[in-house]
Amino acid sequence: MTSRERTWFWIGFLVLLTIGVYVLRDVLLPFVAGMAVAYFLDPVVDRLERLKVSRGLGTFIVLAGFTLVIVGALLLLIPLIQAQVGRLSEVLPNYSQRLQVALEPLVAFVQKTIEDGDAKAKIPDVAGTVFSWVGGLASRVISGGLAVANLLSLFVITPIVSFYLLRDWDRIIEKIDGWLPRAQAEEIREQAGRIDETLAAFVRGQATVCIALGTFYAIGLSLAGLDFGLVIGLFAGLISFVPFVGTIVGGVLAVGLAIAQFSGWEMVVVVAAIFVAGQAIEGNFLTPNLVGDAVGLHPVWVIFALLAGGALFGFVGVLLAVPVAAVIGVLARFALSRYLSSPLHTHGFSTADDAKASPAEGSDEDRTA
Predict the structure, then answer these.
(1) How far is CA 36 from CA 32, 172, 306, 318, 321, in A?
(2) CB under 8 Å to 133, separation ≥6 — which residues?
(3) What digits encode the pLDDT tens for the residues 45-71?
(4) Among residues 24, 103, 150, 217, which is most buried (max CB within 10 A)?
(5) Distance separating alpha carbons of residues 160 and 149, to the nearest angstrom
(6) pTM above threshold 0.70
(7) Region at 228 (left for phi over 0; alpha for psi -120 to 50; beta for the rest)
(8) C-alpha angle with apex 242: 239 to 247, nearest 5 degrees?
(9) Crossing angle of helices 117-146/315-340, nearest 10°?
(10) CA–centroid distance for 197 within its chain
């Protein structure tokens, strides 16, 4: 098989894979979720296996413990969340009126500042377009992900898929390794290892960051006396896997609710300070230590991948977005390194020219410029 034929083979394979995921997106949710759980828990089972625990027994112990933790957290949090949501429906009209009264001076100032009548006319249209796009995306995520594979199938099928994948994980990897083209096997293994490192650092680290932020926001807002602080804090932590979105959305909701609830501005400042502190803790301590800077996934790339995955494949696309982004990122860096060391990049450019163009070898005036 020539190089050209191999290229077309892999392009065709990727096209068919993408079409298959798109066609089957309504039933893939429990399987993708099961793969995510298996990948997340595999290192724990490997550690038990090194302690002479059989793979099957280790899988059962780890998966049972994981399930108990999830179920226990749900049993603990659902009554509290249900009570707060029920109370929210009772007080929301009153809070809405108080918030409108509190923001009237700001709204009047903004309206007075905008003197262009065309701009005034366009603002509702732009806002309507934005809300329509966000609402359409959310609708596609929900309907696309849960149309057939509903919550019942998710909770029933996902543990079964997770168990069998986790038990047979090493054998699956060994079998796939045997399918690799022999000439490029070492190179593929190297890139797969980098993809695994990127995913492990990002997914496991980001999950820990989300839990830590959700706990911090929930406790902080509850201690500040904010109504529904537990729900808002947990929600802000949950969506923090999208960079900056958790802090922004949670902060806007919490500050708006604080303006409606408290008569003075002191507590509003306290609520805002909680989210500022949370963002500072995430940026300076949690993300550098738990996720690290070496994962190679830029926040803008992650946001784009999540939005594109959700728009194209629903909730399944959201689950697949980060792994696909990691694969593309690693392969793009590999392709770039090959290009920079190839004659395509260096053709017609001598070493002397390279030294002359290097900023390190230039004059002080050049560096200043």
Answers:
(1) 6, 15, 16, 12, 12
(2) none
(3) 999 999 999 999 999 999 999 999 988
(4) 217
(5) 14
(6) no
(7) left
(8) 60
(9) 100
(10) 17
